[in-house]
Amino acid sequence: MPEVDPRTFLPLKTQWFHIMLSLAGGEQHGYGIMQEVLERTEQKVRLWPATLYGSIKRLMEADMIEESSKRPEPEMDDARRRYYRLTGFGRRVLDAECERLQELVRTIRVKQASMKEATVTE
Length: 122
What we know:
Layout: H1 14-24, E1 28-29, H2 30-40, H3 49-61, E2 65-68, E3 83-86, H4 88-121
Antiparallel strand pairs: 1-3, 2-3
């Protein structure tokens, strides 16, 4: 089976990006992902359960994340929780999206600098 180019998934859907970014730091359960996204975005992005779990299902179908068999210590865990992690392919997709976003930021900065320069010379 030929390898899929990670760039074919770009740009990532916003909720996919936030889920994958949360998993870049390690395995996480759904509620933990929701809380991290909310905290990281200063309450601006809220992944409601239907959106989160629908996205998780699609990310798993696309082989970007997978369910983890690792569990925390029993006293730190709830047996009902499912933990997720990025796959190698998912990490490549996330890296490609991060590169795309960094290039976009560079373009914005160049544009802003030229706009400031144009304002000063007027």
